[in-house]
Design goal:
The protein folds into 2 domains: 128 residues, NAD(P)-binding Rossmann-like Domain (Rossmann fold, 3-Layer(aba) Sandwich), CATH 3.40.50; 183 residues, NAD(P)-binding Rossmann-like Domain (Rossmann fold). 37% of the residues lie in helices and 14% in strands. It contains 13 helices and 12 strands. The strands form 2 sheets. Strands 8-7-6-9-10-11-12 form a 7-stranded parallel β-sheet, sandwiched between helices. Strands 2-1-3-4-5 form a 5-stranded parallel β-sheet. 43% of the residues are buried. It binds 2-keto-D-gluconic acid (8YV).
């Protein structure tokens, strides 16, 4: 009988997923959810052919150099900026991510965070809980209109398109978008979205939503110069990645009323949050939960598991990122 391949599941995950993986592999699980240091990760990867990662495990040339048995890294996330894809390809290691299964859930959350930001839901809840609500006032927590306003989406992949449809079809919003490349006419029509330059988007949108993947090129897509272009009544929502926004510049813009409010699910250096963001009132802060429904997290974990099983058992990964390494 041939020996089952060995894999590491680097973070805690649904027990059913561990059971499923155990049918095919010798599984080194981490159900205590210890956050490995880079050295601990390298050590736990010794002799492993596969690893189930989340956004918190960095796989780069340094890791690959000392883990020669590693053949596949399966990310339980659509974003894969924790992978050095070029280094993985050079080392002949397959990378997979978890696209599609989280698109609609993340679009729901992006839209919800934008609405909570525009309508000051978190800020007013804190006010109520603090026992400060003692009368009605005509201007109490007056926010920014959502229906009929202009939604500006930066990054028009699957999640951006989902947010566009919600805005256009559900809330009668005018949708403009900016992306590396313009969508084909049929997709634009489905999303009721019009392509504009980044500067025009920032100048005209009432609500800017960021859904662009993180890369060196998208680092600080929104910094002080971009915030200065936005309307003083506008909101900014980031459900993409930390580092897309210059958080210090954003905190300053919020404090100075340069824009009305922001909604952030992702942060530079998370889980740390820039201290200035914690003290400005006009920002809604959530701990990277845009894909967090039970059904979606289960689907993401199962897709990562299916990639490991598909590749290591029959050389057929489901969602490969660098298929050129496949034999
Ligand atoms: C994950 C995400 O929860 O899929 C992504 O890219 O940002 C989130 O859905 C997170 O990355 C953990 O893996």
């Amino acid at each position: 009988m041939t020996q089952k391949p060995s894999i590491l599941v680097a973070r805690a995950v649904f027990p059913g997923v561990i059971e499923k993986l155990s049918q095919h592999f010798v599984v080194d699980a981490n159900q205590d959810d210890v956050l490995f240091t880079p050295d601990q990760l390298k050590q736990r990867l010794q002799g492993k052919q596969g690893v189930f990662t989340t956004g918190s495990e960095r796989i780069d040339a340094g890791v690959l150099a000392v883990c020669p048995s590693l053949k596949i890294c399966a990310n339980m996330a659509v974003g894969y900026n924790n992978f050095d894809l070029d280094a993985m390809t050079a080392a002949g290691v397959l990378a997979t991510n978890a696209p599609d299964v989280l698109t609609e859930t993340t679009a729901d959350f992006g839209f919800a965070l934008m609405m909570a930001t525009a309508r000051r839901i978190a800020e007013s809840e804190h006010f109520l809980r603090a026992g400060l609500w003692n009368r009605w006032r005509y201007d109490m927590f007056t926010g920014t209109e959502v229906h009929g306003s202009t939604l500006g989406i930066v990054g028009m992949g699957r999640i951006g398109q989902g947010i566009a449809k919600r805005g256009a079809l559900g809330f009668g919003m005018k949708v403009i978008y900016h992306n590396r490349s313009q969508l084909d006419a049929a997709t634009e029509a489905q999303c009721h979205a019009t392509y504009v330059g980044k500067e025009e988007l920032l100048r005209t949108a009432d609500h800017v939503v960021l859904v662009v993947p993180y890369s060196a090129a998208s680092h600080h897509t929104i910094g002080a110069p971009e915030l200065a272009l936005m309307k003083s009544t506008a909101t900014l929502t980031n459900v993409a990645r930390g580092g897309i926004v210059d958080d210090a510049a954003l905190a300053k813009a919020l404090r100075e009323g340069q824009i009305a409010a922001a909604g952030l699910d992702v942060f530079e250096g998370e889980p740390s949050v820039h201290p200035d963001l914690l003290t400005v009132p006009n920002v809604v802060l959530t701990p990277h939960i845009a894909s967090a429904t039970v059904g979606t997290r289960r689907a993401m974990a199962n897709l990562a598991a299916d990639n490991l099983i598909g590749f290591l058992v029959s050389c057929k990964p489901v969602t490969p990122l660098n298929p050129q390494v496949l034999p």
